[in-house]
Automatic annotation (TrEMBL):
Residues 325-444 form the MobA-like NTP transferase domain. It holds the Pfam family NTP_transf_3. It comes from the Bacteria. Gene3D superfamilies: Phosphoenolpyruvate-binding domains, Spore Coat Polysaccharide Biosynthesis Protein SpsA, Chain A. The keyword Isomerase applies. It is an enzyme of class 5 (isomerase). PANTHER family: PHOSPHOENOLPYRUVATE CARBOXYLASE, PHOSPHOENOLPYRUVATE PHOSPHOMUTASE. This is phosphoenolpyruvate mutase. GO terms for molecular function: phosphoenolpyruvate mutase activity. InterPro entries: ICL/PEPM, MobA-like_NTP_Trfase, Nucleotide-diphossugar_trans, PEnolPyrv_PMutase_core, Pyrv/PenolPyrv_kinase-like_dom, Pyrv_kinase-like_dom_sf. Keywords: Isomerase. Its EC number is 5.4.2.9.
Length: 589
């Protein structure tokens, strides 16, 4: 977000005055660190008003609160957090936001200290500071029974003059916060102080109250308008409706308020949810039950700009050679008469081996780091530009064990391709362009085809099934798999996994983490496998899904061919003979 919100201090500083000059009601919400600043900067809702007009509502400014800054650091709001610490938080928020900032300046300290505060805030790009007319060190205004001692009004007015004198621009605002109602001194005292502070150069007045009844606030607003008319001034009025929170913004605006500050709500809501989350984990001795209380990690990644970094990394990686693993250790009993003692990848398809045609499709997409896992007929496995590794005990194990024989190639991500499929060149291109960590290529034509006897199909059920009677927008993030396996009811399946998948570095880490945990800790039936010796790739993928990992899919419609039966070989020969020898188009029947 720092890179996306490149707002210079001189461009940000004057935004608050600009909004006020245009007659806007300025709505501000507190922020106490960079993440809450991002929320304050980006939160918005859209809808229609009573006249059916489109309305967008968002916060116009950010309130950097002394209370929430102190509390987020684990300290009480009594001015014990140093200004340098406060300034660090302010810079942290400014770095990831673009909206104007109003800073809670507490009492401002003595006049000398306040001069430096004004100078540093103005230079940082802050739009306004609000200081309260209490003696240093202040006590928070909202806690009942707390003694509140106000500064002599002439002394506070002098502090305002000193602050205004060191300003370098006309953009920065110093707003005086009246604590007369908090201290129980009444409206007359508040208006007397407002007059003195305005005459001293204050750019606005904030009236504070801890009453749940807004009547005294509204009465002050009425009398304040008369005071401005008498002084021939136009200075904004600010309120903080924390305790009198039943009144809506339109009523406050109609009463003359121009800035409304929601002063502590993000921290308070975060504290409540964090406490509930911690207790839920302790109660259940795991975090599963706490998940509904937590935002998805992807939302956090998106908010702080990690997905942007990931996309840049992906673009950087696109020119690098992603390793490809082709598990080819097993036998092919349905076409053994045609193969003889050769392994399936050495099957002749229109004058070229099945493996060489796969290599060609990979090479066209700049995939040249290819590892073929051998087993049956390994002595006859031949191809240029690939590495061969042998799968141990291939006759007893599954294709997953064959894939793991090339584990050394997985560290930085990999592509897995079954050894018995031909795929259009463009499918590899689309797969490489996908952004997700785990992506399986699936065919949606399974919904319209009958199952083939003798063929074990990898059925898939999408997590977000479409309404076929209604056209919808298909967002990428919706393309996640809910179920995958060979024993799924074909009538429920939405897709078929074709045997092609991509794992980024993160996806590979999740893949290996789950695999090794299953190997070490699980016994008996695992997903569709009767035991660990029958554990297949689809079982591992389903296990990952059940553990909360997102497995996405890339949807295609035909464009691939599995070589399983003799008639598949005949069709493949027809397709490649009828077209150019290296034709990339492979329509399925």
């Amino acid at each position: 977000m720092t890179l996306l919100n490149k707002t210079l201090p001189e461009h940000r500083r004057g935004k608050l005055k600009e909004l006020l000059s245009q007659g806007h009601l300025v709505r501000a919400i507190e922020a106490h660190n960079g993440l809450s600043g991002i929320i304050a900067d980006n939160a918005r809702i859209e809808g229609k008003d009573g006249a059916d007009r489109q309305v967008v509502r968002e916060f116009d400014a950010i309130w950097e609160s002394s209370l929430t800054d102190s509390a987020s650091k684990g300290h009480p709001d009594i001015e014990i957090i140093s200004f340098d610490s406060r300034l660090h938080t302010i810079h942290e928020i400014l770095a990831v936001t673009k909206k104007p900032m109003i800073v809670d300046g507490d009492t401002g300290g003595d006049p000398n200290m306040f001069e430096y505060t004004v100078s540093k805030l103005e230079r940082a790009g802050v739009s306004a500071v609000i200081i309260e007319d209490k003696v240093f060190p202040k006590r928070n205004s909202l806690e009942a029974g707390t003694t509140q001692t106000l500064q002599e009004p002439q002394a506070f007015a002098y502090k305002i003059k000193r602050g205004k004198a060191v300003q370098m621009t006309g953009d920065f605002m110093i707003i005086a916060r009246l604590e007369s109602l908090i201290a129980g001194l009444g409206l007359d005292d508040a208006l007397m102080r407002a007059r003195l502070y305005l005459e001293a150069g204050a750019d606005g007045i904030m009236i504070h109250s801890k009453s749940k009844d807004p009547s005294e606030i509204l009465e002050f607003a009425t009398r304040y308008q008369s005071l401005l008319a008498e002084l021939e001034m136009d200075k904004p009025l600010v309120c903080v409706p924390t305790t009198y929170n039943n009144i809506v913004e339109d009523e406050l605006k109609a009463s003359g308020f121009q800035i409304i500050i929601y002063a502590n709500h993000l921290l308070r809501s975060a504290y409540k949810t964090m406490l509930e989350t911690a207790r839920t984990i302790l109660l259940n001795q795991r975090s599963f039950e706490a998940d509904p209380l937590c935002a998805p990690l992807r939302d956090i990644f998106d908010a702080v700009g990690f997905l942007d970094v990931k996309e840049k990394d992906r673009l950087d990686e696109s020119n690098k050679n992603t390793p490809v693993i082709i598990p080819a250790a097993g036998r092919a009993p349905d076409i053994e008469k045609i193969l003889g003692d050769k392994p399936k990848p050495m099957l002749d398809i229109a004058g070229k081996t099945l493996l060489s045609r796969q290599i060609k499709a990979l090479n066209v997409n700049r995939l040249t780091d290819i590892t073929v896992v051998t087993g049956y007929g390994k002595e006859q496995m031949q191809a240029e530009g690939v590495a061969f590794v042998e799968a141990p005990d291939y006759e007893k194990n599954t294709e997953l064990d064959s894939i793991l024989a090339a584990e050394s190639k997985m560290a930085n991500g990999f592509i897995m391709l079954y050894s018995d499929i031909l795929v259009e060149y463009s499918v590899f291109s689309k797969l490489l362009a996908s952004r997700e960590d785990i992506v399986l290529v699936v065919d949606n034509s399974i919904q319209y085809l009958e199952s083939v006897e003798g063929k074990a199909t990898d059925y898939v059920i999408s997590r977000n099934q479409r309404n076929r009677e209604r056209r919808t927008i298909n967002f990428d993030y919706q393309n996640t798999i809910a179920k995958i396996g060979k024993k799924i009811d074909p009538a429920l399946a939405t897709h078929e996994f074709i045997g092609l998948a991509k794992f980024t570095k993160t996806g590979a880490e999740q893949f290996l983490e789950t695999y090794h945990d299953v190997r070490q800790n699980l016994r008996g039936k695992i997903q569709e496998a009767e035991d660990i010796s029958k554990f297949r790739l689809t079982d591992l993928v389903q296990e990952m899904i059940d553990r909360g990992f997102n497995v996405h899919y890339l949807e295609i419609h035909k464009g691939w061919l599995e070589i399983h039966f003799p008639q598949d070989i005949e069709l493949a020969n027809e397709l490649f003979v009828a077209r150019a020898p290296d034709a990339p188009q492979i329509p399925t029947p």
